[in-house]
Design goal:
The chain is 41% helix and 19% strand. It is α/β, with parallel strands linked by helices. Strands 3-2-1-4-5 form a five-stranded mixed β-sheet.
Length: 155
C-alpha cells in the first residue's frame, strides 16, 4: 500500500507541471487513446497516443507506471507487458507536452473518451470547454445499444 501512496503523491506533483505551449497546424482537432493497467482508480496509463486532425502523430509513447508492477489481466487485452514499459518515460516526462496539446485543441476525439479522460485528468489534463466526440457512441448507434450496456456493466 505504501508504494501506491508514494506513486499517487508523485503523480499529483507531476500533474501540477506547467504546459509546454503547442500550436496545432490547421484544424484544432486531436484524436487520442490510452492503454491502462486496468480500469480502477488505482490503475495507470501505460500507453498514450495522440494524432492531430491531419493524421500527424503528436505522441505515441509507452508510459512507465509509478506504482503498478504487474497487470496480467490488462496485458491480455492490450498486449502491453511490464517489460515493454520498463524503459519508457514516466508521466512527469510527458505531462507538460500533453497539457500543451490538449490546451491547443478545440475538439477532442476518442473511443470511450470519458474512460481515457478520467485517467488523463489525474495527470492534470483539462478537457474543460472542449468539444468532444466519442466514436464509441457512433459505433453503438450502428451496432445497437447493447454494446454500450455491456461496456457500462448493464448486461
Amino acid at each position: 500500500m505504501e508504494k501506491i501512496t508514494e506513486g499517487k503523491i508523485r503523480l499529483a506533483q507531476a500533474s501540477k507541471l506547467p504546459a509546454i505551449p503547442y500550436k496545432l497546424k490547421g484544424a484544432r482537432i486531436i484524436v487520442f487513446d490510452t492503454e491502462t493497467t486496468g480500469v480502477t482508480e488505482d490503475d495507470e496509463i501505460i500507453q498514450l497516443s495522440i494524432i492531430d486532425g491531419n493524421g500527424k502523430t503528436l505522441i505515441n509513447e509507452y508510459v512507465h507506471p509509478y506504482w503498478k508492477k504487474d497487470w496480467a489481466a490488462a496485458a491480455r487485452v492490450n498486449g502491453i507487458t511490464p517489460e515493454m514499459v520498463k524503459d519508457a518515460p514516466y508521466p512527469h516526462d510527458l505531462i507538460p507536452k500533453v497539457k500543451g496539446i490538449f490546451e491547443a485543441a478545440d475538439l477532442l476525439i476518442a473511443y470511450n473518451n470519458q474512460f481515457d479522460l478520467s485517467f488523463l485528468r489525474r495527470w492534470g489534463i483539462s478537457d474543460s470547454g472542449k468539444e468532444q466526440y466519442d466514436v464509441m457512441l457512433e459505433f453503438a448507434q450502428e451496432y445497437g445499444m447493447s454494446i454500450l450496456e455491456t461496456i457500462n456493466g448493464k448486461n
